[in-house]
Amino acid sequence: MKIHDFEAAATFIAANARVLDRRRFQRMFGDSAALPVRDAVAAYRNDDGGFGYALEPDCRAPGSQPLAVEMALRIMDEADAWDQALVAGACDWLAAVAPAAGGAAFVESAISGWPHAPWWVPEEGHPASVVATGLIAGTLYSRGVSHPWLDRATEVMWARIGALAEPGGYEMFGVLRFLQHVPDRDRAREAFDRVGALIIDRKLVTLDPEAPGEVHFPLDFAPEPDSLARSLFDEATIKAHLDHLVHAQLDDGGWTFNWLAWSPTAEREWRGFLTVDALRVLRANGRW
């Protein structure tokens, strides 16, 4: 089965998406070069080496944030537009603002006074976030990056994974990205054998493709055939969710999300990003 309507998706992106996501689309599904994606990402860079300015749409603050760095790295990785200078600067910034134990906080205080989603709140004590730390570290490892920040972040992740008992769904995204790419494969597989089962045991995943509300589906944890968490789901379940993803394309050509749309601008920007991402997941799973 092919995607529902590629041309409608292309039209939606042209009409609604940020320049960044239009460049992603042209790079990943057309014949565009890598440099325009790199330049689009760089437009969100701050002088301190971090990224802000609503690169992550739920935070409208200009100041640098770990999850904006995560999105910058992920976009450059997936679009094969990796830029060593931007990456090095981002890692230096992460090291400069790291929690005492290492890693990355979920939200930095630079958000103060700026519009943001209600869940973007700095945590008391400035602890490391499994979500931010794991997502960033996993992408850096996928590209073979070496940096002191990554060394300390890895220690944080192993310690937090070792103590993991009742994770949330978003925490598992950080854990899985880290385990997918960390170089110590034996330790990663051993850790996944223990914590991967928590996705099912703690009911972090919803197997019903039609389930309403802010829930996580199998493709959220295992978007690609080689994802570690793919082993948790049988082929029939993955097929049902891929079918659902195909038919989740809206009449305007784009895809949307199931969490709170707290701002019209953030909603539009997320839809542009996620429409490109839906096409990426469908292609990776042979639905092209």
Describe the fold and architecture.
This protein is mainly alpha-helical and 288 residues long. Helix content is 53%, strand content 0%. The chain contains 13 helices and no strands. The chain has helices spanning 6-16, 19-29, 35-42, 66-78, 84-97, 130-142, 148-162, 169-181, 185-195, 197-201, 218-221, 235-247, 264-284. α1 (6-16) runs antiparallel to α13 and α8 packs antiparallel against α9. The chain is globular and about 50 Å long. The relative contact order is 0.14. The model has no long low-confidence stretch (mean pLDDT 97).
Descriptive terms for the model:
288 residues
State the helicity in percent bands: 40-55%
Instruction: Work out the radius of gyration.
Output: 18 Å
First and last CA, distance: 7 Å
Taking pLDDT < 50 over at least 5 consecutive residues as the criterion, the unreliable ranges are: none
Please provide a brief summary of the model.
Helices cover 53% and strands 0% of the residues. The protein has 288 residues and is mostly helical. α1 runs antiparallel to α13.
Write the layout of secondary structure elements.
Blueprint: H1 6-16, H2 19-29, H3 35-42, H4 66-78, H5 84-97, H6 130-142, H7 148-162, H8 169-181, H9 185-195, H10 197-201, H11 218-221, H12 235-247, H13 264-284
